[in-house]
Amino acid sequence: MVKGRPKPTPANAPAEGSSLSDMYRKPAAEKSADTSDDEPDIDIGKLLKDVELFGASTWKERKQIENRKVVQLGGKATK
What are phi and psi of 65, to 5 degrees? Predict the structure, then answer.
């Protein structure tokens, strides 16, 4: 190679500063500016009540919770 002359580069050579690994890297997915969720809003109170129902260990506790729900909806209270 002759001193003082720049090294010839092929026409399809990568730009300076890029490496060979950049060629195989997948492009980063673009994040949209739209922040609206397709998921419905979660009511924390309803979620806690559901956890209480599923967490009841005996059938008597589940029955009491069910009876409270019936009364809240306007049903007749049990004795």
Answer: -65, -40
